[in-house]
């Protein structure tokens, strides 16, 4: 392989001195800096495939980031995120200067005792960014340079590629590893669930979807063609005109707390926004007074976990259900889940791999980041119990109905990773079955007003956190300052952490009113700027 790696890598040279990290969501930066990274991730995925004797996925996307950026994530055999030790290999390989590349590869091969004679297979997918075509070609070059087989899925959502990898490695048990297989599995489950909803008007079946001008829009159209009009979808920001993630998409709607541009919605219309690679979803509507109401990942987790808990009771199944959140979860959601719903709530660090791992510890683990990335995991035992009950003939109608609903719920969910399309189908099915409007869903609990801000500092790593990122241990004095500020407000909470995907420190605050949340977020931003090496002018108040 030496010759072919040397030859091919010279077509994808690394700019000398450039250093990048495999972060929370893989490598992510301006697309111009990524060609060599893509080639090298093709190499690494091929090694990972030989190591695991399984198919590995490589997704080219920068999710909710601007069109000019791009990024790459590796997908492990069961569709999960790349394991931590290999993230370190990824960083090493990415930062090795051109002439040391072969040595760096050999180092990984030796450390992991990889048999280079074994076959290797890598699935590659990409989002709709203009840079994605050539960057995914660089990944393929990397795979071929090490003699790996590749399958190029072309334009797919991130969760679709996770799904393909899982299907392939479970030999079809999870489903068929094609986009058609994905559409038919999800839509069949959705249609089976919808049968339990009666007398719905076309109005009630109507959903407005903001595709963020990304890959979610065309992929949703493919799914929609299987839905037999049980869901009537109007897609806007479908990529035909606007710019990817610009003034639209799940991240914009969540952080700005306002509807996306590019859409005319009337009061009460049920709407949702995907992000650029369709692994996040948030819902929203405006009321008759024109006020905007957001239903974020926390509201989604509450809806889903309540539904599942009710079904477990009806089915008479004793399974342990938990909701996993991060520090960004609205305080009201945590209180409602613990005090009213009486479900176990866990808090992990930001980043889906942490939530995913925590969710695996329960029979049913519902995990969602407040930003709308999330899914539900069912343990093997849980799935078996549901299957068995759904097949059984000597149970009463109520138990049977609940068991079948649970079975179809399992099938509509993409358990490999958060999936906007799959989450959307589940949410729509739950609302239909419960005969619930988006307003009724929203009224389950009221969010505490909150604000997210960013502060630029010279080195964001000076901020170290503990307790699932809820407290800062350095720099000295920062946590004391935050504690002092929080005390000034009612029902207040605030924390700061370095972003894993942008060169900023994120500030979060919530309190009993929007004015208080905004003021607290601003004061904490000032403390960060002063105590953690702020760059440029001090943050200005929001009002
Ligand atoms: P960072 O930049 O580390 O805050 C953001 C999101 C994460 C996660 C990653 C990956 C927030 C506050 N942070 O991470 O939840 O989704 O991007 O996309 O939403
Ligand atoms: Zn995304």
From TrEMBL:
Q: Which reaction does it catalyse?
A: N-acetyl-alpha-D-glucosamine 1-phosphate = N-acetyl-D-glucosamine 6-phosphate
Catalytic residues, per the record, are 63 (phosphoserine intermediate)
Which residues hold substrate? Answer: 369-371, 497-501, 506
Which pathway does it operate in?
Nucleotide-sugar biosynthesis; UDP-N-acetyl-alpha-D-glucosamine biosynthesis; N-acetyl-alpha-D-glucosamine 1-phosphate from alpha-D-glucosamine 6-phosphate (route I): step 2/2
Residues annotated as domain Phosphoacetylglucosamine mutase AMG1: 204-282, 296-435
The family line of this record is: Belongs to the phosphohexose mutase family.
Lineage at the top is: Eukaryota, Metazoa, Chordata, Craniata, Vertebrata
What's the EC number here? Answer: 5.4.2.3
Record GO terms (molecular function): magnesium ion binding; phosphoacetylglucosamine mutase activity
In this record, what's one Pfam family?
PGM_PMM_IV
Q: Which residues bind Mg(2+)?
A: 63, 275, 277, 279
What this protein is called in its record is Phosphoacetylglucosamine mutase
Which InterPro entries does the record match to this protein? A-D-PHexomutase_a/b/a-I, A-D-PHexomutase_a/b/a-I/II/III, A-D-PHexomutase_C, A-D-PHexomutase_C_sf, A-D-PHexomutase_CS, AMG1_II, AMG1_III, PAGM
């Amino acid at each position: 392989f030496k010759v072919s790696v040397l030859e091919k890598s010279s077509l994808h040279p690394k700019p000398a001195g450039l250093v990048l990290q495999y972060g929370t969501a893989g490598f992510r930066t301006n697309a111009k800096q990524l060609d060599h990274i893509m080639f090298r991730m093709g190499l690494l995925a091929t090694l990972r495939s030989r190591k695991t004797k399984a198919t590995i996925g490589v997704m080219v996307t920068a999710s909710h980031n601007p069109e000019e950026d791009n990024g790459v994530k590796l997908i492990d055999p069961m569709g999960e995120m790349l394991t931590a030790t290999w993230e370190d290999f990824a960083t090493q390989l990415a930062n090795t200067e051109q002439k040391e590349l072969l040595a760096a590869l050999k180092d990984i091969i030796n450390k992991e005792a990889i048999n280079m004679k074994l076959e290797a297979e890598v699935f590659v997918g990409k989002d709709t960014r203009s840079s994605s075509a050539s960057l995914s070609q660089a990944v393929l070059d990397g795979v071929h340079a090490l003699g790996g087989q590749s399958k190029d899925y072309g334009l797919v959502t991130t969760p679709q590629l996770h799904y393909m990898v899982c299907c392939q490695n479970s030999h079809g048990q999870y489903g068929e590893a094609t986009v058609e297989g994905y559409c038919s599995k999800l839509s069949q489950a959705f249609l089976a669930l919808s049968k339990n909803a009666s007398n719905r008007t076309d109005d009630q079946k109507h959903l407005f979807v903001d595709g963020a001008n990304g890959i979610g829009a065309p992929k949703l159209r493919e799914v929609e063609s299987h839905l037999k009009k049980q869901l009537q979808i109007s897609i806007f920001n479908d990529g035909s005109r606007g710019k990817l993630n610009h003034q639209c998409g799940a991240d914009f709607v969540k952080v700005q707390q306002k509807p996306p541009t590019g859409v005319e919605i009337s009061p009460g219309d049920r709407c949702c926004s995907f992000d650029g690679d369709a692994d996040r979803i948030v819902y929203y509507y405006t009321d008759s007074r024109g006020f905007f109401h957001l239903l974020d990942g926390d509201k989604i987790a509450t809806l889903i976990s309540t539904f599942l808990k009710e079904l477990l009771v009806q089915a008479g199944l004793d399974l342990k259900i938990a909701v996993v959140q991060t520090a960004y979860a609205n305080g009201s959601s945590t209180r409602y889940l613990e005090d009213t719903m009486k479900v176990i709530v866990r808090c992990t660090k930001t980043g889906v791999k942490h939530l995913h791992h925590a969710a695996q510890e329960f029979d049913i683990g519902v995990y969602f980041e407040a930003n709308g990335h999330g899914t539900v995991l069912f343990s093997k035992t849980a799935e078996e119990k549901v299957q068995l009950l759904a097949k059984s003939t000597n149970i009463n109608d109520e138990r049977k109905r609940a068991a079948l609903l649970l079975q179809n719920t399992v099938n509509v969910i993409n358990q490999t990773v958060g999936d906007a399309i799959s989450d959307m189908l589940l949410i729509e099915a739950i609302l239909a079955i419960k005969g619930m409007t988006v307003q009724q869903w929203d009224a389950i609990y009221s969010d505490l007003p909150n604000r997210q801000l960013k502060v630029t500092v010279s080195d964001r790593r000076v901020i170290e956190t503990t307790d699932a990122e809820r407290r800062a241990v350095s720099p000295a004095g920062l946590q004391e300052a935050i504690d002092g500020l929080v005390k000034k407000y009612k029902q207040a909470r605030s924390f700061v952490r370095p972003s894993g995907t942008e060169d900023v420190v994120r500030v979060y605050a919530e309190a009993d009113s929007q004015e208080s949340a905004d003021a607290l977020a601003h004061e904490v931003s000032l403390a960060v700027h002063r105590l953690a090496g702020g760059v440029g002018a001090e943050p200005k108040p929001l009002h």
